[in-house]
Amino acid sequence: MKCPVCGCEKFYVKDPDDEFDCYAFECKEGEICFEPDVDPSEAPGVEDDTETYCNRCAWHDKFRTLK
User: Fold this and answer.
1) Can you give the chain as a three-state secondary structure string?
2) Which domain does 40 fall in, by range?
3) Is residue 5 part of a domain?
4) For residue 40, is it within any domain?
5) What pLDDT score does 39 carry?
6) Residues of 13-51 as b/e, b for ≥16 C-beta within 10 angstroms?
7) Is 32 part of a structural domain of the chain?
8) Distances from the Cα of 22 to the Cαs of 9, 16, 29, 44, in angstroms?
9) Residue 1 within any structural domain of the chain
């Protein structure tokens, strides 16, 4: 998966309970892989309707638009 604007392969989502907490991830072979410092049990779920942000440019939209 790549950003439709800049081609970046890294994205992030915001914590639904605290919009200032962000969780960076990549999608490798269809699997969401959070950064190594992120505890998977604390990371928010990423569903088709989760607002997803590019880590490089200003693009953001629902996760399903990346598929």
Assistant:
1) CCCCCCCCCEEEEEECCEEEEEEEEEEECCEEEECCCCCCCCCCCCCCCCEEEECCCCCEEEHHHHC
2) 10-66
3) no
4) yes
5) 84
6) bbeeeeeeeebbbebeeeebebeeeeeeeebeebeeeee
7) yes
8) 16, 10, 22, 9
9) no
Q: What is the pLDDT of residue 67?
A: 66
Residue with tokens 């990346």: 66
Task: Name the domain count of the chain.
Answer: 1
pLDDT at position 5? 95
Q: What is the pLDDT along the chain (67 residues), one digit of tens a residue?
A: 899 999 999 999 998 888 889 999 998 887 899 999 888 788 888 999 999 999 999 999 999 998 6
**Amino acid at position 32, single letter:** I
